[in-house]
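Worked problem 6 (solution included).
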Amino acid sequence: MSGVILPASFYARPTLQVARGLLGKYLVRETAAGLRDGRIIEVEAYVGPKDCASHASRGRTNRTEVMFGPAGLAYVYMVYGMYHCLNVVTERIDYPAAVLIRAVEHEEGLADGPGRVCRLFEIDRRLNYHDLTSGKALWLEDREEQIQRSQIGAFPRIGVDYAGPWAAKPWRFRLTKKK
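Solution. The predicted structure is:
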């Protein structure tokens, strides 16, 4: 099944709206074996330069420059020297914000955790700055699944204890109920 590739206008909105809006959308990757896809069920938002849990809170660096770019770019980085993480850049140019893709349901089960998502979808730093609206290599699709707000749980973010009160923000969203 295929859907409509999410346009830049989808990403160029407030990050928390984009985060909730990504639930139920599909991550699609072209691989040597063909297309791989999966339904996004968990995301985590990072909003602006004052968000102490965001990489961009330390300012513009080579690593974070992509977050200051146009909405709809992929921000791919490595954590712990071994796991890649996929984020989608949101909002407007020069305002660093992004949504981390944390979990995806796929035909073989569940990729729960951003590192598992990237391993399953063969995502690494070569896709950093990739235009997710291009319909090439990696993109996100809307397959017209209607998600009700009652289906979405909001939770504190994971792995950002260093961010003080910012870690407790309920900016991790997960589908908690089936259709």
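Discussion: Helices lie at 8-11, 15-22, 114-120.
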